[in-house]
Amino acid sequence: MLLGRRSVLAGLLLAPATGAMAAEAQMTVRSFDFTAKPREGFTPVAADRLYDAASGYGFEPGEGRSFSVAAPEGDWRVTLEVEGGADLTVKAESRRLMAEQIRTKAKERREVAFVVNTRDASLPPPPKNAPGGAGVILNPREKGTPNWDDRLTVEFCGPAPRVARMTVEPASVPRVFLLGDSTVTDQPFEPAAGWGQMLPRFFAPTVSVASHAESGETMKSFLMEHRLDKVLSQTRAGDFALIQFGHNDQKENWPQTYVAADSTYRDYLKAYVGEFRRRKATPVLVTSMHRRRFDEAGRIINTHGDYPAAVLAVGAELGVPVIDLAAMSKAFYEALGPAQAPKAFADGGKDITHHDNYGAYELARCIVEGIKAGVPDLARHLAADVGSFDPARPTPPDSFVMAPSAARSNAALRGN
Q1: Among 149, 172, 195, where does a domain finish?
Q2: What phi, psi does 361 have (nearest 5°)?
Q3: Signal sequence span per UniProt (predicted)?
Q4: Distance between alpha carbon 227 and the CA centroid of its chain, in Å?
Q5: Number of helical H runs and strand E runs in the chain
Q6: Does residue 158 sit in the same domain as residue 226?
Q7: Residue 80: which CATH number?
C-alpha cells in the first residue's frame, strides 16, 4: 500500500514491447467513475452495472462489491480515489490483501495505489517434437477462480467501502514470485488464508506479488503440473522468488511426490535455485511454519523432522537467503500458548496446519522481517508503514480486525 499522487496517463497506450511486457501493453489505461457526477475522461459506472465481456468492465454478481476489468496477464497499477467518510479494505483477485483500513474524514479525499499481477494458465508452446506442455494443469478448485481468469478483479471491503474512482494502467516492475503449498497460497474463500495473500499489503507499488503457490503442492508436483514452467516463463532479471515447500513433500504416504530430507529434498531445492539464478533472479528459501502441536510444557513439537534444517543447509551451501519461518512460527505460537493459538488457524482452530486471516497476516509480518534482515534488494520495495514485528510479541488475536471477503466456504482444504 502506498498513499500518494498518481501520474496522469488516461488514454495513454504504452509503446510496443516483447514478451510479458507486450501483453501488458495491449491494454490502454482505463479510468472508471462510480459517482453520480462522473469526471471528464472517466467511464461512468452505475452501481448495478454487471461485468460483461463486450465492454470489459463491471461489477461481479453475488454478494460483496467486486469490480472487474478485462486484462491480459501482466502487472497493473491500480489507483483508487477514496471518498470522505470511508473505512475501506481492498483485496484483489482471490482475496489478495492490497490495502487495509483506509479511513478518511468526512470531506477528505485520498488516493491509494498498488500493483496487481494477473495471469492465465497458458504456456508458450514448445518447439515441434520438443517435450513440454501447453499450459498449467489446474486442479478443479482453481478453475473459474479470479486468479486464473481473463480479468483483473478488485474487491472493496469494509464497513464503508467508498471509492469514487479507479484507474488501471500497465506497470513494468520487478515481480516477487511465490512458490509453495496451501499455507502460502491465495485461499479463495473465507475464513482460510495463506501468508502469501497477505504479503502484497506490505509492499509499495514498485513491485508486484505473483503467487503461484497452490494447496496440496510439492516440489515434484509443481514441476509435473508445469507450474514452475509458468513461473520461469515470466521471470526476468531483477525478479525475486520466495520458495516454501515441505508440508506435503515429507508425506511418505504420497509416494509419487515424497522426497527425503537428507537427499532428494535438498536436490530439488538446489534445482529450483539454479533455475532462478540462471535467469538472473534472486531466489529466497523459506522454511515451513510449524503445525500447531504443543507438548505438555506448552512448547511446539517439530512435526517437520529434518526438513527445516535441510533448507538452512542448502541456503548456507549455495549462499541463498533463507527466511526461517519455522523458528518464527514457533515463537509466534508459543507466545499465544495452547489456549489462544487456535485463533490463528482455520476451521475455528480445528485445523492445526492452515491459518485464518489473523494467522496468515502475522506470518506475513514474519516474512517481512525476514526480507528486511536478509534480502536488502527486496526490502527497499517494502511500504513505508510496515513497522517492525516480533513474533514473540504478536498482535493479540481478539484485537485483530480484517474486513472479510464475500466468498466463503467450509469445504476441506486440498491436501489437508
Answers
A1: 172
A2: -65, -45
A3: 1-22
A4: 15
A5: 9, 18
A6: no
A7: 2.60.120.430
The reply to whether 190 and 291 lie within a common domain is yes
Q: How far apart are CA 410 and CA 189, in angstroms?
A: 8
pLDDT of residue 416: 67
Q: Residue 42's pLDDT is what?
A: 97
Secondary-structure percent of the chain, ordered helix, strand, coil, rounded to 5: 25, 25, 50
CATH number at residue 193: 3.40.50.1110
61 and 180 in a single domain? The answer is no
Residue 26: the pLDDT is 58
In a shared domain, residues 179 and 133:
no
Rounded to the nearest 10 degrees, what angle do helices 227-234 and 264-278 cross at?
Answer: 30
* C-alpha cell of residue 314: 542448502
Cα separation, 377 vs 314, whole angstroms: 21
Is-contact 405 157, C-beta < 8 A? yes
E strands within 313-392? 322-323, 355-356
Same domain, 178 and 322: yes
Q: Which residues of the chain have pLDDT under 50?
A: 1-25
For residue 388, count CB atoms less than 10 angstroms from its CB and return exposed for 0-12, middle for 13-18, buried for 19 or more: exposed
What one-character DSSP code corresponds to residue 53? Answer: T
Q: Which of 172, 189, 214 is the last residue of a domain?
A: 172
Helix (H, G, I), strand (E, B) or coil at 256: coil
243-256 core/surface letters (b: 16 or more CB in 10 A; e: else): bbbbbbbbeeeeee
In this predicted structure, what is the pLDDT of residue 415? 66
Could you say which DSSP state residue 401 is in?
-
Residue 251 pLDDT: 94
| Amino acid type, 351 | D
- CA-nearest of 292, 407, 303, 297 to 350 is 292
Cα separation of 259 and 380, whole Å? 35
What is the model's pLDDT at position 404? Answer: 95
Q: Are residues 162 and 38 in the same domain?
A: yes
Whether residues 96 and 237 share a domain: the answer is no
Question: Residue 97 in 3-state DSSP?
Answer: strand
Identify the domain containing residue 400 by its residue range: 174-416
At 216, list the grid cell.
496440496
Q: What total number of domains does the chain contain?
A: 2
In angstroms, what CA-CA distances link 367 with 183, 232, 269, 282, 377?
A: 13, 22, 19, 16, 15
Which pLDDT value is given to residue 28? 81
For position 8, what pLDDT does the model report? 30
pTM of the model: 0.92
